[in-house]
Design a protein that fits this description.
This protein is mainly alpha-helical. The chain is built from nine helices and two strands. Helix 1 runs parallel beside helix 7 (149-181), helix 4 crosses helix 9 (214-226) and helix 7 packs antiparallel against helix 8.
Amino acid sequence: MRGRIGPGGPTSDSVLLHQAIDLREEWLSRALSTLPADRSAAEVAITELYALVGRRPPRFLWVESPAAMLRVDPAARPESHPARPRFAHFDRPGGMPLASRLAAHMADLRHQLDRRIGARLARDVRDHTGRATAQRMLPHDALREEVPLRLLLEITVGDSLRHSVHDTVAASLRTALNARNEGPFGLLWTGQHETHWIARYDVWRRLGLIPVPADLGARLDLWATLEPVMSGPPVPSTRR
């Protein structure tokens, strides 16, 4: 029996895959939810993220939807960021603009977690060439055909949510917002539609398949707190 050894004894790959699918559905439900955002939790998480990149707590302006943000006078917005960050901004006091700092913080978090997943995934990917075949199969059928669990997690959680949320819902919203704005935005956080990468790390962590140090776990939890918040440029906005 393949699987892992946890505090309660061995857990089979079949059980772990079932748990992963349940967690994926939990994240998908959050991604597609239209319930109001938890403003207090979002503001606490954003304030902590600002502190991690060396910035003071922001002033918050909540609106009814991402599209409603476009109707707010830019001068009234708490803080803006350049639609096209340029190297000149790195020479000003404080260094990188805020949006770039937050993007770099996120990229560093993902890089460190990817390294932990990659160390465990590399052998399974190298030794198994059936990813394309597995993508056309039901997860448990693929597992019975000896597709490695770790590879199935990438397909069943990350790939699935990327297609269902990021490549469909988020892409459509971004296109619509760009059209209303008469041009593309710069760095943009799409809140609940960033589910694919947050859920991927969360599932690996919650199944006990990768060790996640406390500091990385805390940083991931901050972004996960923002996941139910749909944001428009350049500040948080609620979902309705």
